[in-house]
């Protein structure tokens, strides 16, 4: 019963748990979409800022290319002009012009002896494309700082005349990214076309100058921006939005990553609180179910069961004493009234049984007196004229009287089958050996089976005497029985008597044969009215031997 009460409590909590679980899943999905959208927005903003910076420097180089001293490659005037421009723009390290042979022509700073730039990737790209070019993460040969080179062709008509070169200072770009700030656990990364990280927030000292891992290199030149979930190099699981270089006007790869643990921290706290609340509610519900179940359900049930056990043990005065409007209290009170009625019926049955026993004893006394009177009349009538026949008649009359005495007194006892059958037949045949054949093992019958068998044999013998083989001088009866697995199989076979036909109606004797045995004996019988005599089969149980 406790388990059933617990099951009821669990069933009551199940919808709440299911609803919370559904809300949890929905909330996480919603938060995941929000973080992805925020990451994409942060990546767009960072990429847009980088584009503005590069576009501003592009415009600067266009202006430089339009300066007369630069266009005519007037070294002295060009050096002064470029130095003046470089000093006014803090985000560039130097501005200089390189000839087509890779040697510097003029610039904002002095050139080391023998320095050349023809091996730089941006220089080769200018020679091939004759268009504005953004280089890769490089250590400047003029300032010895890390820069991101920018190159602009100096054209004279359709002819490439020289290359104007500048570079974004990486320390300035890093400071710009750092000043924008990132939330704890988040990260912004800027990389060049080779995947080298040129700026990162946070931990620039750990990542700037390193290369993006190989499994993510394909993102740098991807066709479309996207949002993915990955584990960063610092071991943090992040939702990362990236903007590839392949996009129009996107000179650098930009990514913005939001820390998943940080983003989902409020949800995790809410989940923990909800889980603790569910556990607490479940414990409270189970405790309440057990306490309430014990107090208001189990205790009354045990009380009723205890009274029933006492009744089984013979304490018929036991009662629950339950009153009230509660359902189980009503059941207990109804049960008490039922017990009162049963006790009253038992008392009345005892009174009726006492009266019945008294009447049976009176009937038995009168039957005995009747048999005694018949025996006295017979003795006075022909005991002297035919003593032998009188003695036979007297024995049979005494046997019949004993059978009736047994029936009326209901005093049965355990007896062998042979003794029970012989006693029942003694009143119907003068000499058992002449008309009766008994054949079977020694099977002892309990008292509640011996008496019914005696009644059945007596009824069969009575019918055989009146209508069958025992009413004829040459008639015989064969009674055979066997015992198998706690059941007795008995066969009554008549022969040598007058022809037998099936009776047209059932008499009391037939009903007695069918109902003599108690229900636990599971008795079954069958009568076959053959012309040569009745064949009666009887099967009943006496328990497993």
TrEMBL record:
Compartments (UniProt record): Cell membrane
Enzyme Commission number, as recorded: 2.7.13.3
Pfam families: dCache_1, HWE_HK
Origin superkingdom: Bacteria
Bilayer-crossing regions: 276-302
One BP term from GO: signal transduction
Cellular compartments per GO CC: plasma membrane
KW Ligase (keyword) present: no
Enzyme class: transferase
Recorded GO MF terms: ATP binding; protein histidine kinase activity
Reaction(s) the record says it catalyses: ATP + protein L-histidine = ADP + protein N-phospho-L-histidine
InterPro entries: dCache_1 (IPR033479), HAMP_dom (IPR003660), HATPase_C_sf (IPR036890), Sig_transdc_His_kinase_HWE (IPR011102)
Keyword line: ATP-binding, Cell membrane, Coiled coil, Kinase, Membrane, Nucleotide-binding, Phosphoprotein, Transferase, Transmembrane, Transmembrane helix
Main location: membrane
Domain HAMP: 295-347
Membrane topology field: Multi-pass membrane protein
Coiled-coil intervals: 335-362
Keyword check for Signal: no
Listed name of the protein: histidine kinase
